[in-house]
Amino acid sequence: MASSRLSTACFFALLGLLCDVVACFTAIAASPTSAVGATFTSLFGSTSGSARDLLYQDQQDAMLRRALHEQQLLSRNKKIKELIAPKLIPAKPKSGTGFGGSASNRVNMDPSARMASEMADVVRREGVIRVDNVVSGETADNLRGYVLEQQRIAAIETERDPSTSRTYYGVENRRKCRCDLQLSLLRGGFASHLGGDREDAPDAEARRSTFALGDALQEMLGSDGTLRRLYENLVTPDGELYELAAVITDKGSHRQMVHPDLPYQEKAPLYVIFLALQDVTEGMGPTSFLLRTHTGEANAIFASGDMERKDEQLSRAECRVGTLKKGDAVLFDARTLHCGNANDERTRVLFNFSFRNPQVGGSLGYKGSIRPGYEGAMSLRGMADALAAYGSGDTNPFAKYI
Question: What is the residue-level pLDDT of the chain in tens, covering all 402 positions?
């Protein structure tokens, strides 16, 4: 048993070393102007050639092997359960109650504020919460169709000019059957940036008649939005919009390695939403979340480099899988350990956005998927104001953020 454990530890230590070496050579290959990069290029070909692709593929294969090992650890001697929405019954207001403490404050709130406070407590305790019926089925359908149309336009434009890739795609661009598509807040989306005179651009009148993204945001973050009070509780109205994208995985997408989204910080820096734009079945690669792993202790073990301790942590973890119905969402603390599962069925589209905690300054060590022009440009309050304008008849309320 000890020999087997040692062999496993050695294997993953070597695996980590291999990933470091691959990353090093990939970086060298990406810098042909340096002396070392020029030598690499002369020996192995250009940066777009087969050598760099092989190095990248080796790295991906190593990560997949680790991800599959983690899957075994998470399910060892136990059945992984579905993440379900908690049944919360907020306390009713009490007459004559003072405002000396948080509990007293809570019972004097209106019902929606009390519910949001209870939900925020779940997030702070568990690291994740499921929220059902965040948007209507019709809104989810419309947004899914819009996202897939935006993906088609992005593919055409990046094929035409690869240098525009950063405008359209985020952190999950090159991986097989998976991408983060950075969405535009303009009515009409990417086509509005490109102009309506392109042969492949949708009809201008059709673009003006619908605003699927605006409608979805209105249902979630408008004055009566299903997530508005919850986010105000977690990040205050000053929270910064940090991500705005769609996570798209196709059949054949591999399982991810378990990870937090960013390096650990004592205060929760970021709260993330995944909204299901169709039912997400077990075979479509739902996200797995490890409850209560947003703590300093859990993150320290995970980042320690001690593979034996890390494997034990995963084997003991309380894992929940985010199989969702269309219109349901998961909100999680970005420090929480999680991973996407393999998609063996059909295209899964999740709408993804996050807001940053204004009490956490400096770099988060993680660049979110958001179009360059929106970085640091909008707060939750600014989002709410734009949605109020949209509700009052402004057909393009986010145009000032271009």
Answer: 444 443 444 444 444 544 444 444 444 344 444 444 444 444 444 555 688 778 888 888 899 999 999 999 999 988 999 999 999 987 676 655 443 445 556 556 788 899 999 999 999 999 999 999 999 999 999 999 999 999 999 999 999 999 999 999 997 665 679 999 999 999 999 998 887 544 454 444 555 578 999 999 999 999 999 999 999 999 999 999 999 999 999 999 999 999 999 999 999 999 999 999 999 999 999 999 999 999 999 999 999 999 999 999 999 999 999 999 999 999 999 999 999 999 999 999 999 999 999 999 999 999 999 998 999 999 999 999 999 999 999 999 999 987
How far is 245 from 359, CA to CA, in rounded Å? 24
For 273, 303, 357, the CA distances from 29, given in Å and listed in that order, are 36, 28, 37
Burial of residue 266, with CB atoms counted within 10 A of its CB: 0-12 exposed, 13-18 middle, 19 or more buried: exposed
Provide the H-helix boundaries in 226-332. Answer: 228-235, 296-302, 307-316
CA distances from 194 to 4, 141, 244 (A): 58, 25, 19
pTM, two decimals, is: 0.83
Short-list 230, 229, 228, CA closest to 124: 230
Check: CB of residue 105 under 8 Å from CB of residue 313: no
CA distance 150 to 173: 15
Tell me the H-state helices in 75-130: 102-107, 111-126
Burial of 3 (0-12, 13-18, 19+ CB in 10 A): exposed
* Contact status, residue 314 vs residue 74, Cβ threshold 8 Å: yes
Q: Which helix (H) or strand (E) holds 82?
A: strand 81-82
